[in-house]
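Handout for the seminar on molecular recognition.
Each group receives one record of this type.
Step one: identify the two inputs.
Step two: read the structure output and locate the region that could contact zinc ion.
Step three: write two sentences on what you found, then compare them with the reference statements printed after the record.
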Amino acid sequence: MDKILITNGIILTLNPEQPVLFDKALLLENGTISKIADKGEITDFKGKEIDAAGKVILPGFINVHHHFYSTLVRGLGKAKPSKDFNQVLEHLWWRLDKQLLQEDVYYSALISAVDAVKHGTTTIIDHHASPGAISGSLNEIAKAVTQCGIRANLCYEVSDRDGDCKTHEGIKENLDWLRQVKSEQSDFLKGLFGMHAAFTLSDITLHTIAEESRKLNCGYHIHVAEAASDEQYSLKHHNKHVVNRLKDFKLLNDKTIAAHCVHINEQEMEILSHFKVAVAHNPQSNQNNAVGIADVVKLAKKGVLVGLGTDAMTVNMLEEIRVGLWAQHLKHDPSQGFMEITNTLLKNNGEIANRYWGGKLGMIGEGKAADLVLIDYYPPTPLDSNTWLGHIIFGISQAMVDTTICGGKILYQNKKLLLDIDEAEVAAKSRECATKLWERF
Ligand SMILES: [Zn+2]
């Protein structure tokens, strides 16, 4: 792999001890940031040099909750209007995902992963469903993200909504995938055990999942209290709150991701904090589905590690973080939430990803992964260790991504894809798949 030297950029390290570096060069070797030094110190360099003048350099962005499979829904107007979240599932997602074929799964992921590269997102934690094409679906996604050169943590969302056969096929897909990533020890692909949500999982299924997955020592990825109806169902049918129920099946641990948590109570927050479960906050999705807004301020106060996902609304993490901040302002008041929300993407997502990637992601430093994004930006006001977060939210988030590097490989440069992918051809193939999928819908 080529050595790369990046010079002249302003480096936003996401390391709280030294968040902004000026006049430093980054040397990338073997997929890692091997040296951060004054440009003059790196003398006999032979390799590729990137002049980052007029740009800020950040670690590649991390998305902790995504659904690659939802790409082909874009523009589909056939679903009945939905009055609440359960209708959104019944009228749209549960009709769509049943019809997905392996080819749809692959092109959905490929389109979304290319888009991620263009927005500087280099790591995605995904939650996949395709009840009509379960076995092998995670390998279809893996093929697509590998072609795009980014990192992904994949799982299949098991649910009981399509009968026992599908439940067991989903369990097997997770187990096969977890065993595969364990044996391959890839730096790019990881796994979790996926479950849709408590209200689509019986006690028998939760027990089976707990038993079957125990030896793998894995984390779980599940939607939790996205709408109030999840909690209401749990209280009515199981006489306990969602988080308590998951705890009783021993499904909470420090690799588990609970997506949404809009409607959990304070005691559930304390349980999540106790078991070091990460929460994936998805503010755009929550507003789109009108389910409410998770109380990120209170979750943080309770010691819960809250990261930022997009729930497939976008792969642009800087768009999501802005919406997250406005949502907390609306929920509380404009003085609230700034640190809690900026921490989700710029601190906690790294911490969450490092639970699977062993400490190398989410920060610029010597020995860290060479996952970087270069964004066009001339700071119009003083940029330093006190002001950099404001620059990210109000300025850098609106600027253009110029270059994306993952694992020391340049995937996108001068706003052009350097992947071995013909974007127009991929989009044409995807439109073909979408047309047929919409006919089956
Ligand atoms: Zn989701």
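Reference statements: Residues 65, 67, 127, 223, 259, 311 surround zinc ion (CB under 6 Å). DSSP finds 14 helices and 20 strands in the chain.
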